[in-house]
Design goal:
Blueprint (H helix, E strand, L loop, with lengths): L3 E4 L12 H13 L1 E8 L2 H5 L9 E3 L6 E7 L1 H20 L10 H19 L7 E5 L6 H7 L6 E4 L7 H4 L5 H9 L3 E4 L2 H12 L4 E3 L5 E3 L2 E7 L6 H11 L11 E8 L6 H14 L7 E8 L6 H21 L7 E4 L5 H10 L2 E4 L8 H9 L7 E5 L5 H4 L4 E3 L4 H13 L2 H17 L2 H29 L12
Parallel strand pairs: 1-2, 1-5, 2-4, 5-6, 6-7, 7-10, 11-12, 11-14, 12-13, 14-15, 15-16
Antiparallel strand pairs: 3-4, 8-9, 9-10
The structure holds adenosine-5'-diphosphate-glucose (ADQ).
Length: 482
């Protein structure tokens, strides 16, 4: 079987990597073997021991059963690529926050430069039959840059965040450039059908793009397939972990009801909106005062970007105000933790919570929604309250309670309904959700994507064969006389 080469901004470092995507792909890599390439910031000369050469070198990270290599990028260039173009331009664009875009020429230059360096470095290590799987918005231009280096291998791309709408994408100025980057891939995977529709719409508005009957796109001289592959989690293992750890993860008295949220502290996650809805619930349904606790865990992220500092301040103010209003002796309604929590502990907390509150304003998928479902006790499960703007709503929307983050009253009523839901209804909803989360798990996701990439490569080989036959060339090599 051909080798799998995974390329992402972050890669598993350390001997025992953790985290949704990393764990998922690590399993695939351990099964198949392969090469994983990532990017880190640092001093190139220190890493390679040699002055910077025109072709950047990759640093080896031995220690796992597959190969890991890392491109080192100097801090200033890395910041402009990562905090700048990736997280101050592309992230807000893809999450519908064009008002937060900070479009600076040097960011775009750095983004293209880092992708170019990565392509040059990776090209040296590629074998002719490698399959390449590139991940996420940091690396949109990578296939185009690899093609510049003469790489002909099948290259797939998976976007973990939403695809920007056609109405917003113009904020990039260079929309044709984005289309060219995408068309350099053989397969572009998106989280949802809604994202596929947005991507098709962006191509539809571009001169030179052609939509083909099979759903693929011809753009200039390239053909690219677009499909949705909703990412899953290691559901079975996560459920077992939750069952093991729930005993050590109790927070409050038995009769109090726990509502939980766990997110990176990101403006796309709708955290102020959740706090306002909780405030509204305590205000309008006073039977819950003293009886429910909302635990919101928010892990620190991208704190060097202004918009992230602002949302942190906003949450601190809101949580103080809510607790000031509704706390009593021995009762603090809202616990807001600005930190990362160990995954074992988190799984146990999910299992003990009667309500999982997953209310982003925009989200590619949202793995917390799936983790919450996997963690429940099927005999006495909690209820998932899910935003319709999470990608997960395409798979889970029918059996979760769908809440609108922009409507505090409706969200508060959803939480009330979840807390009051009879056992049989909770069991029925949970059984349907769990079936989906278990069957469309992370292995299913990775295998579906890789199969589609393989099929596409075979189709291309077949088309090439046909073209050769039409031109009267024999596709068969002459047998050499011995
Ligand atoms: P994220 O935006 O990071 O991922 P999400 O899918 O929710 O969002 O994954 C977060 C992960 O971090 C989950 O595994 C969660 O358990 C964990 N986590 C969150 N808060 C934590 C905390 N305080 N402590 C410890 N762990 C915490 C991006 C996209 C998503 C997409 C994923 C995968 O933005 O839409 O679902 O990639 O494709």
């Amino acid at each position: 079987m051909s080798r799998l080469v995974v390329i992402s901004n972050r890669m598993p470092l350390g001997d025992n990597p953790s985290g949704g995507l990393v764990v998922a792909l690590r399993d695939t890599m351990e099964e198949q073997g392969g090469l994983w390439v990532g990017i880190a910031q640092g001093d190139e000369a220190d890493q390679s021991g040699a002055p910077q050469s025109p072709v950047p070198r990759l640093q080896d990270h031995p220690g796992l059963s597959f190969d890991r290599k890392c491109l080192t990028v100097p801090p200033e260039l890395y910041d402009d690529y990562y905090l700048g173009y990736s997280n101050s331009v592309l992230w807000p664009l893809c999450h519908g926050r064009t008002d937060l875009i900070d479009l600076q020429q040097r960011y775009r230059k750095a983004y293209i430069e880092v992708n170019r360096r990565l392509a040059k470095a990776v090209a040296l290590y590629l074998k002719p039959d490698d399959r390449i799987w590139v991940h996420d918005y940091h690396l949109f231009p990578l296939a185009d840059a690899l093609r510049e280096e003469g790489v002909l291998n099948p290259i797939g791309f998976f976007l973990h965040i939403p695809f920007p709408s056609a109405a917003n994408v113009g904020a990039l100025t260079h929309v044709g450039e984005l289309a060219k980057w995408l068309a350099a891939y053989d397969l572009v995977g998106l989280q949802t059908n809604r994202d596929v529709a947005s991507c098709l719409e962006v191509f539809r508005t571009l001169p030179g793009a052609q939509m083909l009957m099979d759903g693929s796109i011809r753009y200039r001289d390239r053909m690219v397939d677009l499909k949705s592959f909703p990412i899953g989690i290691e559901a079975k293992a996560f459920g077992q972990m939750a069952a093991r750890t729930c005993g050590q993860s109790t927070l409050a008295d038995d009769d109090s009801k726990l509502v939980i949220g766990a997110d990176r502290l990101d403006y796309s996650k709708g955290l102020p909106q959740r706090f306002l809805a909780f405030d509204h619930l305590l205000e309008t349904r006073d039977e819950w005062r003293g009886r429910i606790n909302y635990l919101q865990i928010a892990s620190p992220t991208r704190e060097d970007v202004q918009a992230y500092r602002e949302i942190r301040e906003e949450l601190e103010q809101l949580s103080g105000a809510i607790n000031g209003r509704f706390s009593d002796i021995g009762y603090t309604p809202l616990q807001y933790l600005h930190r990362t929590v160990d995954r074992n502990r988190l799984a146990g907390l999910y299992r003990n919570a009667k309500v999982g509150l997953v209310i982003p304003l925009a989200d590619g998928m949202n793995l917390v929604a799936k983790e919450y479902v996997a963690a429940q006790d099927p005999a006495d499960p909690g209820v998932l309250v899910l935003s319709g703007f999470a990608g997960a709503a395409e798979q889970l929307g029918e059996h979760a309670l769908i809440a609108n983050p922009y409507d505090s009253h409706q969200m508060a009523e959803c939480i009330h309904k979840a807390l009051s839901m009879p056992l049989t209804e909770r069991q029925e909803r949970h059984a349907a959700l769990l079936e989906n989360v278990l069957s469309e798990d992370v292995a299913w996701w990775a295998n579906s994507f890789l199969k589609a990439l393989r099929d596409k490569a075979m189709d291309e080989d077949f088309l090439q064969l046909l073209a050769q036959l039409r031109e009267g060339q024999s596709p068969l090599k002459p047998v050499e006389a011995s």
